[in-house]
Amino acid sequence: MLVQVAGSFRDPSGHVYESNGAIFRAIAPFAARDYQAARDAGVFDRLVGENKLVGLKEVDPTGLFTGTGAAAHLLEHPRIPFISYPYEWSFSLLRDAALFHLDLHLDLLERGFTLSDASAYNVQFNGPHPIFIDHLSIRPYREGEFWAGHRQFCEQFLNPLLLRALFGVPHNAWYRGNLEGIPVSDLAKMLTAKHKLSWNILAHVVLQNRFQQGAGKRADVGKIKESRLPLAAFKGILTQLRNWIARLTPDRIGATVWGDYATTNTYSSDEEQAKRRFIGEFVKATKPKSVIDLGCNTGEYSKVALDAGAERALGFDFDQQALDRAHHRAKDQSLNFLPLFLDAKNPSPEQGWLQTERTGHAVRAKADAVFALAFEHHLAIAHNVPLDQVVGWITSMAPTGVIEFVPKNDETVQRMLSLREDIFPNYTVEAFEAALASHARVERRDVISQSGRTLYAFDRGEA
User: Which of 77, 97, 127 is the last residue of a domain?
Assistant: First the structure.
């Protein structure tokens, strides 16, 4: 029996369902004609073959689909390894998703099709590579039609990018607070006179904002709907927007606290090699297919895990510059590695309609193994999270993994305590080991630095 995915209510033409780990989409009768047109024209097969569209297979709904309405078709899709959201993407991930969306739209227009909307949630990532997941957004192009998704594209792709490119402000917290993106009306209020001298900003922010404000007051709304946009002009808008977005870069990208950590940490070369060796040996021994790398920085240890045999790595970090570098590394080195933004003291919650539309971090962030390297002290010392809770949270993500304990006398922790009172009498290696023992069995323990940094390989299987 199929169970409807909560967030799919937004598209009545094709609700999404799960059954025993498989993903299905039921196509409503009123949406069947557009689906059949794209299918019969070979659009889906071509895009799937180019790794631009998630796969699909028509299946017999008998015994599966018991929905209240009839389904013209039932599709089965492969499961995306990890569903991420735009508020978890770095600037470079969001920019790549925006460019991918525009390139896909231009490709479809060349073949007589278009996209009915421009939701950023329709783009997911397999490693560093974007892929489109909403087959029913693809429909035949109608001569003279306007870009129906322009406003949505601006609010869910362009405006979050401009927030960082113009003002140096990451989009993540704002986007998470407003799941539809950053409203044109809000961004327009932030613009200076100098910003408005840009033709791109004038066209896609200022004038769009004015149009939206005046649309409800105009008596000639019907005439606007009857207006026609030549196909060449439609393509021109998308191409111009694509070229602009491709040139956008983050503002104020000077050194961040952890952006250069991979090259400026307190490890000696011997200690670094010991750490890499430990992770490599752990992966070869436990053979995890998927790993989570908490505090992944630029992805050094995710790469070690992949080189040792892991199939895919999912990284999390707070530092925007480190995340952008990690994403570029994954692309440049063809790594099946997806680095995402995470404020570990405030992970993504269950939210949206009925608090079920967007799934929280705790439900999605699961893997065969988890790494928390030089990580736990950032929660326990910097943010006063009880050490046993930190350990419990980390070990909940995977049945096995590696945690690094950083003792109080370590240089990094001493810097954290230099401007505040030491209120952590229970932050000791003994307390850490007791907390870990309450959740898992310690398989291996190696001291890797003169300060006493220690790596613990754990296994929950017989804990």
Answer: 77
Residue with the two structure tokens 């952006």: 259
The H-assigned helical ranges of 66-218 are 91-110, 150-153, 159-167, 172-177, 184-190, 199-201, 207-215
pLDDT digits (tens, 9 = 90+) for 38-50: 999 999 999 999 9
Task: Please provide the DSSP assignment of 302-340 as one string.
Answer: HHHHHHTT-SEEEEEES-HHHHHHHHHHHHHTT--EEEE
Same domain, 69 and 129: no
- For position 401, which CATH number holds? 3.40.50.150
Give 210-242 pLDDT, tens digit per residue: 988 876 565 555 555 567 899 999 999 999 999
Token pair for 194: 């100098």
| Alpha carbon of residue 436 to chain centroid | 29
Structure tokens that stand for 177 in this block: 């607070």
Residues 267 and 243 in one domain: no
Pairing mode of beta strands 400-405, 369-372:
parallel
Q: With beta carbons less than 8 A apart as the criterion, state whether 299 and 326 touch.
A: yes
Are residues 272 and 242 part of one domain?
no
Q: Evaluate if residue 3 carries a pLDDT over 60.
A: yes
Burial class (CB in 10 A: 0-12, 13-18, 19+), 57: exposed
Q: Do 50 and 171 sit in the same domain of this protein? A: no
pTM exceeding 0.90: yes
Q: Could you tell me the CA-to-CA distances from 144 to 24, 46, 222 in Å, in that order?
A: 34, 26, 15
Write down the pLDDT at residue 403.
98
Is residue 126 scored above 60 in pLDDT?
A: yes
pLDDT above 90: residue 64: no
Domain region containing 72: 3-77
- Domain count of the fold of the chain: 3
Q: Is the dihedral of CA 298, 299, 304, 306 positive or negative?
A: negative
Residue 270, pLDDT score: 83
